[in-house]
Design a protein that fits this description.
By secondary structure, the protein is α/β, with parallel strands linked by helices. Strands 9-14-13-12-10-11 form a six-stranded mixed beta sheet. A five-stranded parallel beta sheet has the order 1-2-3-5-8. Strands 7-6-4-16 form a four-stranded mixed beta sheet, with no helix packed on it. Strand 18 and strand 19 (567-576) form a beta hairpin. Helix 3 (82-98) runs antiparallel to helix 11 and helix 13 (360-368) runs parallel beside helix 16 (475-483). The model is unreliable at 1-5 and 751-767 (pLDDT under 50). Bound molecules: beta-D-glucopyranose. The site of beta-D-glucopyranose (BGC) has 7 residues, from loops. The site of beta-D-glucopyranose has 7 residues, from loops.
Length: 767
């Protein structure tokens, strides 16, 4: 029974309803037993379950229940493999379910706007299509186990600097095409149970209070049917957030903000129906949780094996002059403290306590058939070369045929909470590599880093470079598999490796000033920027080598349907022309060469991983839709496909386009909307507009001119930028300002029954 004896047991008081809208502690929401409302439990996310046994300790990463530490998103992004993302999500869902967790706080799908973002290891890519496809697969995997996912951080949380206050300022096209696109993809395709609003402001308004983001776009346009949860501590004004569409504030505010909600309703400043709507969404989320069948106990050995499989598929072979794969019979050495003390994940809220940790030296010894001699070569937390360690490593390398050198970023350089200051490897590691390169041994560099490191200054000293990112608890096994060719590398860069930090798109606008970060590069993020400038990069987006070779042929494009029903199929054949079995990632890019909007030369719109045996081929089919050719027209506030040719390119990276063709989508002719602010040229470029102007701008007979000088070739180019409203005031334009409104109606075919007076036409009847 409720407090009020006459109320039905399930009815809630205002105070009870308000108490559901925020956490009861760090990780849980409040239960209201008499109304049958259970408590929800959240846990991080995203590459493993970080479930703390206590619910009142925030930074207790070291105290969470052991869980499989899968490759963090930076690595998973490089797999370009939604099947793996799905399986990983499913395994994490099972572990979450077993730990009593209802919602996993992930995936994080923010775009890597700058390589400096301290949290790039938690995100997939600089490209929204790749991020969206992988994010959707991960969400499907998690939710298939009856555990909810929380898509985060919505939106424009692309830096850590001042993340609780900074305003990310971007124009609508940039938001729609780059920063919101992956969220849109996941919401529409995978229906996440929750979305997490970000800490930062977006164009001056906190994301947690941003009605346009949380309601107009997320719910009304994309059809999101779940609950919006705040990032931990992201709510500034609870009542404003509730009005904007934020359902659950996490963690607890100790009841303070529940009181704010009650007070606002009682004062008439907040409609109680807004509270009811949020409560209904929370109850719907609880119903989803309750309807789920138990996923069954997780099998941690199998999950470790899966972590190893995924790790092997995430590794990107950047460069290989033949030093890889390692021959088991070769005289090998391993150098690098990061082989002994590996970095497998980044620091902060995503940090998982692994169930076990592979040792790369053991794993290499197993595949080599004997122990591999090792020297640390440097100190991980020091920048200064240690002459003793260097000398020992050089001596070891001299006695080997191939030395594998493990380099990377020390943990203290990258974490949630702050951005990086540079993208260089520590100087002591670069110095060590320089000395090793002078030995007769072939040098294979293995990198461990969550954010991109620049390779330009040292890669000449390496015969092969393997980008391992952060590979989770099975780093050792996954990496050994690739080094020895047990796994043929198929990872591809999900982000460009620039030659220098100064070459990156956001360089002059990161991390902002005085509380604002201006996304001045617009849509030109990552490869879109580098390709538009045709600027040199160390390794382009999409790049990754294999131990075999692939060739593409027989590109065919077929389109059917018009406008929003347009369906374009693209077929291509991939040949394995090398000696080994391997997986290729076929990449499809679209270019819009005749667009009236600034466009990058190419945009990723499809990719497909296919395993092909040597000497065999595989047929790959892509299906593209209207939106794949659309740009967001901020002026009109909608997506548009402009008439004109479309480039379809098939490549092995954004800089290695192997096949291309052009087709013209079938679109119904659209008459551009014209108004009094449209320019003379805009009016003249539309047949209807020109007709109206030729009739209206008639010079008087005594001028001796048969038609307006303003519309004549040669003059139109010069005066064409004048808006019609102002042209009508020009002497000699012979355009009557009083008739403009009627001209606009006529040209847009909004005649509501009227013909222009003075046309000699009868007035039509109106209703
Ligand atoms: C992070 C979120 C995380 C939450 C809970 C926040 O600081 O930004 O990604 O899910 O903490 O740990």
């Amino acid at each position: 029974m409720g407090e009020n004896g006459s109320r039905p047991p399930e009815a809630l008081t205002l105070r009870e309803k308000a108490s559901l809208l925020s956490g009861v502690n760090l990780w849980q929401t409040r239960a209201v037993e008499h109304a049958g409302i259970a408590s929800l439990r959240f846990s991080d996310g995203p590459h493993g379950v970080r479930c703390q046994p206590t619910v009142d300790e925030f930074l207790g990463g070291g105290h969470s229940i052991p869980a499989t530490c899968f490759p963090p998103s930076v690595a998973l992004g490089s797999s370009w493999d939604p099947g793996l993302a799905r399986r990983m999500g499913e395994a994490i869902g099972r572990e979450a379910d077993a730990a009593g967790v209802d919602v996993i706080l992930g995936p994080g799908i923010n775009i890597k706007r700058s390589p400096l973002c301290g949290r790039n290891f938690e995100y997939y890519s600089e490209d929204p299509h790749l991020s969206g496809v992988l994010g959707a697969a991960f969400v499907e995997g998690v939710q298939s186990t009856g555990v909810g996912a929380s898509l985060k951080h919505f939106a424009l949380n692309n830096q850590e600097t001042d993340r609780h206050r900074v305003s990310a300022d971007a124009d609508e096209r940039t938001m729609r095409e780059i920063y919101l696109a992956a969220f849109e993809h996941v919401v529409k395709d995978a229906r996440p149970w929750t979305v997490m609003s970000a800490y930062n402001k977006v164009n001056g308004v906190y994301a947690s209070e941003h009605r346009w983001l949380l309601t107009t776009v997320l719910r009304e346009e994309w059809g999101f049917d779940g609950a919006v949860v705040s990032d931990w501590g992201a709510v500034d004004n609870r009542v404003a957030a509730l009005r904007a569409g934020l359902d659950i504030e996490m963690p607890t505010s100790g009841g303070i903000t529940d009181g704010d909600v009650v007070a606002a309703v009682e004062a008439g400043a907040l409609d109680e129906s807004t509270v009811d709507d949020a409560v209904a969404r929370i109850r719907a989320l609880l119903a989803r949780v309750a309807a789920a069948r138990p996923a069954g106990p997780p099998h941690l050995d199998l999950h470790h094996a899966l972590a190893r499989e995924i790790a092997g598929q995430c590794v990107v072979l950047l460069k290989n002059d033949g030093a890889l794969p390692l021959a088991p019979s070769a005289r090998l050495a391993v150098v690098g403290a990061l082989a002994r003390s590996p970095r497998t994940q980044g620091a902060g809220s995503s940090q998982v306590v692994p169930t076990r940790l592979d040792d790369v030296l053991d794993e290499m010894a197993r595949l080599h058939g004997a122990p591999v001699p090792f020297a640390p070569g440097y100190r991980i937390d020091d920048d200064v070369a240690d002459p003793g360690l260097v000398a020992e490593a050089v001596q070891l390398a001299e006695g080997s045929e191939v030395t594998v050198v493990f380099l990377g970023l020390p943990g203290h350089q990258e974490s949630e909470g702050f951005d990086r200051a540079h993208i260089d490897l520590p100087a002591n590691q670069v110095e060590l590599l320089r000395r090793l390169a002078a030995t007769p041994a072939r040098i294979v560099v293995v990198l461990s880093n969550g954010g991109v490191v620049r390779t330009a200054e040292w890669e000449d000293g390496a015969d092969a470079v393997v980008e391992g990112w952060l590979l989770g608890q099975a780093f050792g096994g996954g990496m050994a598999d690739v080094l020895f060719g047990v796994v043929n590398p198929s990872g591809r860069l999900a982000e460009t490796i620039p030659r220098r930090l100064q070459d990156t798109a956001s360089y002059l606008n990161f991390p902002g000033e005085r509380g604002h970060v201006r996304y001045g590069e617009g849509i030109f993020v990552g490869y879109r920027f580098h390709d538009a400038l045709d600027g040199a990069v160390s390794y382009p987006f999409g790049h990754g080598l294999s131990y075999t070779e692939f060739a593409y042929e027989d590109l065919r494009v077929d389109s059917r349907g018009t406008d929003e029903d347009l369906v374009v199929t693209v077929d291509v054949r991939v040949h394995n022309v090398g000696q080994r079995s391997g997986a290729d990632i076929v990449q499809l890019y679209v270019g819009l060469p005749s667009s009236s909007l600034p466009q990058p030369p190419r945009t990723l719109r499809g990719f497909e991983k296919c395993v092909v045996e040597p000497g065999r081929s595989a047929d790959v089919r892509f299906e593209l839709h209207w939106r794949d050719f659309a740009s967001f027209d901020s002026g009109r506030g909608r997506w548009t496909v402009e008439p004109g040719p479309v480039h379809i390119e098939i490549g092995a990276s954004s800089r290695d386009i192997r096949l291309s063709t052009t087709f013209v989508p079938t679109l119904s002719p659209v008459t551009p909307e014209l108004d009094a602010d449209s320019t003379l040229a805009e009016w003249a470029s539309s047949a209807a507009g020109r007709r109206v102007l030729e009739r209206e701008m008639q010079p008087p007979v005594e001028s001796g001119m048969s038609h307006s000088r303003f519309l004549a070739d040669g003059t139109l180019e010069t005066v064409g930028t004048i808006p019609l409203r102002r042209l009508a005031r020009f002497p000699g334009a012979y355009l009557d300002p009083a008739r403009l409104a009627l001209c606009v109606e006529e040209v847009n075919d909004r005649g509501n029954g009227h013909d222009l007076p003075g046309q000699g036409a009868e007035k039509k009847p109106t209703n």
